[in-house]
Write a structure and sequence with these properties.
By secondary structure, the protein is of the alpha+beta class. 37% of the residues lie in helices and 31% in strands. It is elongated. One of its GO terms (cellular component) is cytoplasm.
Length: 35
Amino acid sequence: MQDYQHEFLDFAIDVGVLRFGEFTLKSGRLSPYFF
């Protein structure tokens, strides 16, 4: 993974726009993350 990609993921997690868990999407599918 490139440095900028790692930094972006860290930033997204830190500010709360990328969350991990069990989420039900509008389509009804389950997703392990929400962005």
